[in-house]
């Protein structure tokens, strides 16, 4: 239920954003994109620091340093070798050409990454399935609503289609939670969240026009913590 509300929020917000798009000049849309990048960076760093630094009552310490480093390096290597970014963008471009659609690749990919790779998506679904608690998914829906509205006003129709990614991704997480939650250590969510927040910061660098990073090639990094837990 929470995932469906989340997807509906994205659709409604995107429609509102698209209505405003025609009224905004290029200077305003560029400013909105930069502001979105700044917010993404601060949120990603904040969420990362919250889970990365712990306090045991005596001193502050960090956790999972090696796992994070290996996840990012190995995951990015796998994604680069598989050319995930090039292939997925090519796939979307072919759909655009075949069906004579307006440009959707940038909006769809960017919005899908923002809505799916954060820790709140995974934790929210797990809380929904295990505890029946929709609080995190409600919070995510509000954040996604604001984000989708701004993104749609700058990146266009592709943002609206990202609701499909949210339904598929959070639906898969829901299935995992239903069948495997009793066997998964609580720390796994923290590990995945830490890696995901680094990807959010990487995405923000593109928004801020600091450095263009192919975040799609980094996505396999989210799988490495799962393999780490399974192997151990």
Q: Explain this structure to me?
A:
The mean pLDDT is 88. This protein has helices at residues 2-21, 26-52, 65-82, 84-98, 105-116, 119-131, 135-155, 158-180, 187-207, 224-231, and strands at residues 53-55, 60-62. With 232 residues, it is mainly alpha-helical. A two-stranded antiparallel sheet has the order 1-2. It has ten helices and two strands; from the N terminus they run ααββαααααααα. The protein has one domain (2-20, 31-53, 67-231).
What are the key terms here?
about 230 residues; mainly alpha; 10 helices
Oligomer: single chain
Strand percent estimate: under 5%
**What structural class do helix, strand and pairing data support?**
mainly alpha
The separation of the N and C termini measures 34 Å
Instruction: Kindly state the percentage of residues in helix.
Output: over 70%
- What is the residue-averaged pLDDT? 88
Question: Low-confidence segments, ≥5 residues, pLDDT <50?
Answer: none
Across the major sheet, the strand order is 1-2
Order of helices and strands: HHEEHHHHHHHH
Secondary structure tally: strands: 2
Biggest sheet statistics? 2 strands, antiparallel
Give the overall form: globular
Number of structural domains: 1
Radius of gyration: 18 Å
The DSSP helix count reads 10
Q: What's this model, at a glance?
A:
The protein has helices at 2-21, 26-52, 65-82, 84-98, 105-116, 119-131, 135-155, 158-180, 187-207, 224-231, and strands at residues 53-55, 60-62. By secondary structure, it is an all-alpha fold.
